[in-house]
Amino acid sequence: MESVLKRSNKCFSDTSDFIETHEDSKRTRVMAMDDVNNIIRQKLFNHRLAILSGFWLPLHTLSHKLETIRDTQDPNIPALIPLGLKERGHFRTCDHIVLGIIQNGHMYVLDSKLNPLHNFDYSAKIKALSTGFQDISDRTNCGRYAVNTAIQLGQALDHNPNSDLNQLVETMQRPNLMKIQREYAKYMW
User: N or C: which end of the chain has fewer CB within 10 A?
Assistant: First the structure.
């Protein structure tokens, strides 16, 4: 009589190559907002910036929320806020992490995707910027790109808090996705 273990090995040996480990999944799954907050805080802890904890919110409340934050912040210190936007995209079914920025009383949203709907998505009070780092079809790496963008931007704003954000975004270097997937996995649960 053949043991159950031997029979199960025959049945599952072909699929064992496809079992993803926890460490592998940290490189490929969507980053949680807590992970985004943790990495940004660790990477920018000694910079002269206000790093606010990120949160999820419906897209239609974004303008009001950024205004509230702007009104409570020191206008001389730029603020970076990871923002998880709900109900985004053509059919309002996608969630997406972007970077909110408040600088000199102005409000910005810095998106890793080129957003053709930015005039429709954001109120006139918010200036929409995009790095274009993330492919339109990529639905899992927005948190990684938001973290990388926050780090690049935070380092530049630390040296000159009044830097022109349009210029900074144009000079940002697109990160190697596999590299940031590996690097940020170390900080994830």
Answer: N
